[in-house]
Protein 1
Amino acid sequence: MRFDHTSQGFPPAGRPAAMSDGDKTNTPDSPNVGVVVKTRPRTRKPAMYKVLMLNDDYTPMEFVVHVLERFFQKSRDEATRIMLHVHKRGVGVCGAYTYEVAETKVTQVMDLARQNQHPLQCTIEKD
Ligand code: TYC
Protein backbone atom coordinates (compact mmCIF):
# COMPACT_ATOMS: atom_id res chain seq x y z
CA MET A 1 0.00 0.00 0.00
CA ARG A 2 1.23 3.56 -0.78
CA PHE A 3 1.78 6.13 2.00
CA ASP A 4 -1.60 7.54 2.96
CA HIS A 5 -1.39 10.91 4.81
CA THR A 6 -4.93 10.54 6.13
CA SER A 7 -3.91 7.59 8.26
CA GLN A 8 -2.10 7.80 11.60
CA GLY A 9 1.46 9.13 11.77
CA PHE A 10 1.10 12.42 9.86
CA PRO A 11 2.74 14.84 10.37
CA PRO A 12 5.79 12.69 11.10
CA ALA A 13 6.60 12.34 14.81
CA GLY A 14 9.06 14.89 16.21
CA ARG A 15 7.91 17.96 14.20
CA PRO A 16 5.04 19.99 15.60
CA ALA A 17 2.25 20.63 13.06
CA ALA A 18 2.47 24.45 13.55
CA MET A 19 6.15 24.48 12.52
CA SER A 20 5.89 22.12 9.58
CA ASP A 21 7.80 22.70 6.36
CA GLY A 22 4.87 24.65 4.94
CA ASP A 23 5.29 27.64 7.37
CA LYS A 24 6.74 30.35 5.11
CA THR A 25 6.03 33.24 7.53
CA ASN A 26 8.79 32.35 9.97
CA THR A 27 12.11 32.67 8.15
CA PRO A 28 15.56 33.80 9.37
CA ASP A 29 15.16 37.11 7.43
CA SER A 30 11.57 37.67 8.57
CA PRO A 31 11.01 36.04 11.95
CA ASN A 32 7.58 35.90 13.58
CA VAL A 33 8.12 38.76 16.04
CA GLY A 34 6.23 41.99 16.71
CA VAL A 35 4.91 44.49 19.21
CA VAL A 36 2.39 43.17 21.72
CA VAL A 37 -0.70 45.36 21.39
CA LYS A 38 -3.43 45.36 24.01
CA THR A 39 -6.85 45.31 22.41
CA ARG A 40 -9.92 46.69 24.12
CA PRO A 41 -12.80 44.19 23.87
CA ARG A 42 -15.12 45.77 21.27
CA THR A 43 -18.45 45.01 22.89
CA ARG A 44 -21.21 47.52 23.56
CA LYS A 45 -24.06 47.30 25.99
CA PRO A 46 -27.27 47.29 23.97
CA ALA A 47 -29.39 50.46 24.11
CA MET A 48 -32.34 50.05 26.48
CA TYR A 49 -35.91 51.24 25.93
CA LYS A 50 -38.55 51.91 28.56
CA VAL A 51 -42.05 50.64 28.02
CA LEU A 52 -44.44 53.33 29.27
CA MET A 53 -48.09 52.79 30.11
CA LEU A 54 -50.57 55.62 29.67
CA ASN A 55 -53.65 56.36 31.73
CA ASP A 56 -57.16 56.48 30.28
CA ASP A 57 -60.63 56.79 31.80
CA TYR A 58 -62.03 53.42 30.70
CA THR A 59 -59.59 50.51 31.07
CA PRO A 60 -60.44 48.65 34.31
CA MET A 61 -57.76 48.80 37.01
CA GLU A 62 -57.83 45.01 37.34
CA PHE A 63 -57.05 44.61 33.62
CA VAL A 64 -53.98 46.87 33.91
CA VAL A 65 -52.77 44.88 36.93
CA HIS A 66 -53.23 41.66 34.94
CA VAL A 67 -51.23 43.07 32.01
CA LEU A 68 -48.36 44.06 34.30
CA GLU A 69 -48.28 40.60 35.87
CA ARG A 70 -48.55 38.71 32.57
CA PHE A 71 -46.23 40.66 30.28
CA PHE A 72 -43.87 42.42 32.69
CA GLN A 73 -43.43 39.69 35.35
CA LYS A 74 -44.58 41.98 38.17
CA SER A 75 -45.90 40.66 41.48
CA ARG A 76 -49.49 41.60 42.28
CA ASP A 77 -48.27 44.23 44.78
CA GLU A 78 -45.80 45.78 42.32
CA ALA A 79 -48.35 45.67 39.48
CA THR A 80 -50.92 47.42 41.68
CA ARG A 81 -48.35 50.06 42.68
CA ILE A 82 -47.48 50.80 39.03
CA MET A 83 -51.15 50.84 37.94
CA LEU A 84 -52.06 53.34 40.70
CA HIS A 85 -49.04 55.48 39.79
CA VAL A 86 -50.25 55.61 36.14
CA HIS A 87 -53.84 56.27 37.26
CA LYS A 88 -52.75 59.26 39.36
CA ARG A 89 -49.84 60.67 37.32
CA GLY A 90 -50.88 59.80 33.75
CA VAL A 91 -47.85 57.70 32.78
CA GLY A 92 -45.60 55.06 34.34
CA VAL A 93 -42.72 52.70 33.55
CA CYS A 94 -43.48 48.98 33.11
CA GLY A 95 -39.83 48.01 32.53
CA ALA A 96 -36.72 48.59 30.34
CA TYR A 97 -35.68 46.18 27.58
CA THR A 98 -33.72 45.96 24.34
CA TYR A 99 -35.61 47.46 21.38
CA GLU A 100 -37.09 44.25 19.97
CA VAL A 101 -38.24 42.98 23.36
CA ALA A 102 -39.80 46.36 24.22
CA GLU A 103 -41.56 46.46 20.84
CA THR A 104 -42.92 42.93 21.35
CA LYS A 105 -44.28 43.83 24.81
CA VAL A 106 -46.06 46.91 23.44
CA THR A 107 -47.65 44.78 20.69
CA GLN A 108 -48.73 42.11 23.18
CA VAL A 109 -50.31 44.67 25.54
CA MET A 110 -52.11 46.55 22.76
CA ASP A 111 -53.38 43.31 21.15
CA LEU A 112 -54.83 42.02 24.43
CA ALA A 113 -56.36 45.44 25.19
CA ARG A 114 -57.98 45.60 21.73
CA GLN A 115 -59.34 42.05 22.04
CA ASN A 116 -61.00 43.15 25.27
CA GLN A 117 -62.15 46.50 23.81
CA HIS A 118 -60.08 48.57 26.23
CA PRO A 119 -58.37 51.75 25.00
CA LEU A 120 -55.18 51.03 27.00
CA GLN A 121 -52.10 52.50 25.31
CA CYS A 122 -48.40 51.98 25.86
CA THR A 123 -45.32 53.32 24.10
CA ILE A 124 -41.55 52.99 23.94
CA GLU A 125 -39.08 55.63 25.10
CA LYS A 126 -35.27 55.43 24.80
CA ASP A 127 -33.75 54.98 28.27
N1 TYC B 1 -57.83 55.21 35.00
C1 TYC B 1 -58.34 53.87 34.88
C2 TYC B 1 -59.62 53.74 35.70
O1 TYC B 1 -59.91 54.59 36.51
C3 TYC B 1 -57.33 52.83 35.36
C4 TYC B 1 -56.10 52.79 34.54
C5 TYC B 1 -54.84 52.73 35.14
C6 TYC B 1 -56.17 52.78 33.15
C7 TYC B 1 -53.69 52.68 34.41
C8 TYC B 1 -55.00 52.74 32.39
O2 TYC B 1 -52.63 52.60 32.26
C9 TYC B 1 -53.79 52.69 33.03
N2 TYC B 1 -60.36 52.66 35.48
Note: The CA atoms of residues 91 and 104 lie 19 Å apart.
Protein 2
Amino acid sequence: MILVSACLAGINCKYNGKNNLNQIIQEMVKRGEAVPFCPEQLGGAPTPRIPCEIKSGTGEDVLAGRCQVINKKGEGVTSILIKGAEESLKLAQMINPQKIILKERSPSCGKTMIYDGTFTGRKIPGMGVTAALLKKHGFNLLTEEDFKEN
Ligand code: SF4
Protein backbone atom coordinates (compact mmCIF):
# COMPACT_ATOMS: atom_id res chain seq x y z
CA MET A 1 0.00 0.00 0.00
CA ILE A 2 1.00 3.62 -0.64
CA LEU A 3 0.01 6.79 1.21
CA VAL A 4 -0.37 9.99 -0.83
CA SER A 5 -0.96 13.66 -0.03
CA ALA A 6 -4.69 13.95 -0.70
CA CYS A 7 -4.42 17.12 -2.80
CA LEU A 8 -2.30 15.17 -5.32
CA ALA A 9 -5.19 12.73 -5.77
CA GLY A 10 -7.51 15.60 -6.70
CA ILE A 11 -9.16 16.07 -3.31
CA ASN A 12 -9.94 19.73 -2.62
CA CYS A 13 -8.09 19.95 0.69
CA LYS A 14 -5.63 22.71 -0.25
CA TYR A 15 -5.64 26.01 1.65
CA ASN A 16 -7.60 27.69 -1.19
CA GLY A 17 -10.17 24.90 -1.43
CA LYS A 18 -8.57 23.47 -4.57
CA ASN A 19 -6.19 20.59 -5.28
CA ASN A 20 -2.86 19.72 -6.90
CA LEU A 21 -4.11 16.91 -9.13
CA ASN A 22 -1.51 14.54 -10.52
CA GLN A 23 -3.25 12.02 -12.80
CA ILE A 24 -0.71 9.26 -12.15
CA ILE A 25 -1.24 9.53 -8.40
CA GLN A 26 -5.02 9.75 -8.73
CA GLU A 27 -4.95 6.54 -10.79
CA MET A 28 -3.11 4.78 -7.93
CA VAL A 29 -5.98 5.73 -5.61
CA LYS A 30 -8.60 4.60 -8.17
CA ARG A 31 -6.88 1.21 -8.50
CA GLY A 32 -6.96 0.82 -4.70
CA GLU A 33 -3.17 0.96 -4.41
CA ALA A 34 -2.97 4.26 -2.51
CA VAL A 35 -4.76 5.95 0.38
CA PRO A 36 -5.03 9.77 0.41
CA PHE A 37 -4.48 11.81 3.57
CA CYS A 38 -4.21 15.53 4.35
CA PRO A 39 -2.16 16.32 7.46
CA GLU A 40 -3.53 19.85 7.87
CA GLN A 41 -7.13 18.62 7.81
CA LEU A 42 -6.17 15.81 10.21
CA GLY A 43 -4.74 18.49 12.48
CA GLY A 44 -8.12 20.25 12.54
CA ALA A 45 -7.53 23.07 10.04
CA PRO A 46 -10.57 24.25 8.09
CA THR A 47 -10.71 24.28 4.29
CA PRO A 48 -10.37 26.80 2.81
CA ARG A 49 -7.85 28.23 5.31
CA ILE A 50 -5.30 31.02 5.47
CA PRO A 51 -2.01 29.70 4.00
CA CYS A 52 0.78 29.07 6.48
CA GLU A 53 4.57 28.78 6.37
CA ILE A 54 7.31 27.73 8.77
CA LYS A 55 9.02 30.84 10.15
CA SER A 56 12.82 30.78 10.30
CA GLY A 57 13.30 27.04 10.18
CA THR A 58 12.18 23.64 8.93
CA GLY A 59 9.79 20.89 9.96
CA GLU A 60 12.55 19.33 12.10
CA ASP A 61 12.93 22.66 13.92
CA VAL A 62 9.17 22.85 14.54
CA LEU A 63 9.16 19.31 16.01
CA ALA A 64 12.10 20.23 18.23
CA GLY A 65 10.31 23.39 19.45
CA ARG A 66 12.88 25.69 17.86
CA CYS A 67 10.48 27.61 15.60
CA GLN A 68 6.83 28.20 14.83
CA VAL A 69 4.38 27.92 11.96
CA ILE A 70 2.42 31.09 11.22
CA ASN A 71 -0.36 31.88 8.81
CA LYS A 72 -0.39 34.84 6.46
CA LYS A 73 -2.22 36.92 9.08
CA GLY A 74 0.64 36.28 11.54
CA GLU A 75 -1.35 33.89 13.73
CA GLY A 76 0.39 30.84 15.19
CA VAL A 77 -0.81 27.49 13.81
CA THR A 78 2.04 25.30 15.06
CA SER A 79 -0.18 23.05 17.17
CA ILE A 80 -2.42 22.27 14.17
CA LEU A 81 0.52 21.20 12.03
CA ILE A 82 2.04 19.13 14.84
CA LYS A 83 -1.27 17.39 15.51
CA GLY A 84 -1.63 16.75 11.77
CA ALA A 85 1.84 15.21 11.70
CA GLU A 86 1.07 12.98 14.68
CA GLU A 87 -2.24 11.79 13.20
CA SER A 88 -0.53 11.15 9.86
CA LEU A 89 2.13 9.11 11.65
CA LYS A 90 -0.59 7.11 13.37
CA LEU A 91 -2.15 6.36 9.97
CA ALA A 92 1.22 5.40 8.48
CA GLN A 93 1.96 3.07 11.38
CA MET A 94 -1.42 1.37 10.87
CA ILE A 95 -0.98 0.93 7.12
CA ASN A 96 2.79 0.47 7.02
CA PRO A 97 3.04 1.72 3.41
CA GLN A 98 6.01 0.81 1.25
CA LYS A 99 6.17 4.48 0.19
CA ILE A 100 4.54 7.83 0.94
CA ILE A 101 4.17 10.36 -1.89
CA LEU A 102 4.10 13.93 -0.59
CA LYS A 103 3.35 17.34 -2.08
CA GLU A 104 6.59 19.24 -2.40
CA ARG A 105 6.99 22.73 -0.82
CA SER A 106 4.08 22.43 1.65
CA PRO A 107 4.81 23.36 5.32
CA SER A 108 3.35 19.95 6.22
CA CYS A 109 4.12 17.70 3.25
CA GLY A 110 7.24 19.25 1.65
CA LYS A 111 10.06 16.71 1.34
CA THR A 112 13.08 18.67 0.09
CA MET A 113 11.92 22.30 -0.28
CA ILE A 114 9.60 24.55 1.74
CA TYR A 115 8.68 28.25 1.67
CA ASP A 116 10.82 30.40 3.93
CA GLY A 117 8.16 31.97 6.16
CA THR A 118 8.09 35.38 4.48
CA PHE A 119 5.11 34.66 2.18
CA THR A 120 7.11 36.04 -0.73
CA GLY A 121 7.44 32.80 -2.68
CA ARG A 122 11.06 32.27 -1.61
CA LYS A 123 11.99 28.64 -0.98
CA ILE A 124 14.62 27.03 1.22
CA PRO A 125 15.85 23.43 1.49
CA GLY A 126 13.99 21.57 4.22
CA MET A 127 11.05 19.36 5.08
CA GLY A 128 7.54 20.15 6.23
CA VAL A 129 6.40 19.09 9.69
CA THR A 130 4.64 15.86 8.69
CA ALA A 131 7.41 14.85 6.30
CA ALA A 132 9.99 15.37 9.05
CA LEU A 133 8.06 13.21 11.52
CA LEU A 134 7.47 10.44 8.97
CA LYS A 135 11.14 10.47 8.01
CA LYS A 136 12.19 10.30 11.66
CA HIS A 137 10.16 7.10 11.93
CA GLY A 138 11.86 5.56 8.91
CA PHE A 139 9.16 5.84 6.23
CA ASN A 140 10.17 5.93 2.56
CA LEU A 141 9.24 9.38 1.25
CA LEU A 142 8.83 10.46 -2.38
CA THR A 143 7.26 13.54 -4.00
CA GLU A 144 4.90 14.15 -6.90
CA GLU A 145 7.98 15.21 -8.85
CA ASP A 146 8.99 11.54 -8.92
CA PHE A 147 5.69 10.89 -10.78
CA LYS A 148 5.78 13.43 -13.60
CA GLU A 149 2.99 13.35 -16.13
CA ASN A 150 4.09 13.36 -19.77
FE1 SF4 B 1 -1.91 18.73 0.27
FE2 SF4 B 1 -0.39 18.17 2.37
FE3 SF4 B 1 -1.32 20.63 2.04
FE4 SF4 B 1 -3.00 18.70 2.70
S1 SF4 B 1 -1.32 19.46 3.94
S2 SF4 B 1 -3.33 20.23 1.11
S3 SF4 B 1 -2.14 16.96 1.60
S4 SF4 B 1 0.11 19.56 0.71
Note: Strands lie at 2-5, 34-37, 52-55, 68-71, 99-102, 113-115, 123-125, 141-143.
